[in-house]
Amino acid sequence: MTTSADLLAALEPMARLIPGRRNPFGALGYGIGRRSERGRLTPERCVLVFVPRKAAAPRAPLPPRVPGTRVPIDVVALGSNPEPSEELELPEDPDQLSPTSPLGLSSGA
């Protein structure tokens, strides 16, 4: 099981793996959330990597886990013209992360 602390610790290696919009994976960004299988969310928390579209044979495939961690990576296709959105900030306290909200963040309630 991936803990909140594992997820937060995975963000630093992700910043090295995907340093910006110009990366070998064509990733637009990444965040913390729940893995999706066949269009349904699972309880498994992971790092989500957002791409315009998934490729059958990507030029540079992403690893299945964040390098140096046990945290899984799930690739999410946003479509050909994704809209920019606000940047979310993670809470200081890893216990504020929740597997039940889409982004892995609890409402603080």
Give short descriptive properties of this protein.
single chain, 109 residues, alpha+beta, 3 strands, disordered C terminus
Q: Helix fraction?
A: 10-25%
Task: Return the average pLDDT rounded to an integer.
Answer: 81
User: What overall form do the CA principal axes indicate?
Assistant: globular
Into how many domains do the coordinates divide?
Answer: 1
Written account of the structure:
By secondary structure, the chain is an alpha+beta fold. It has one domain. The protein is 13% helix and 24% strand. The protein contains 1 helix and 3 strands; from the N terminus they run αβββ. The chain has one helix spanning 4-17, and strands at 29-37, 40-51, 73-77. A 3-stranded mixed beta sheet has the order 1-2-3. It is globular. The two termini are 24 Å apart.
Write the layout of secondary structure elements.
Layout (H helix, E strand, L loop, with lengths): L3 H14 L11 E9 L2 E12 L21 E5 L32
Task: Summarize it.
The protein is of the alpha+beta class and 109 residues long. Helices cover 13% and strands 24% of the residues. The chain has one helix spanning 4-17, and strands spanning 29-37, 40-51, 73-77.
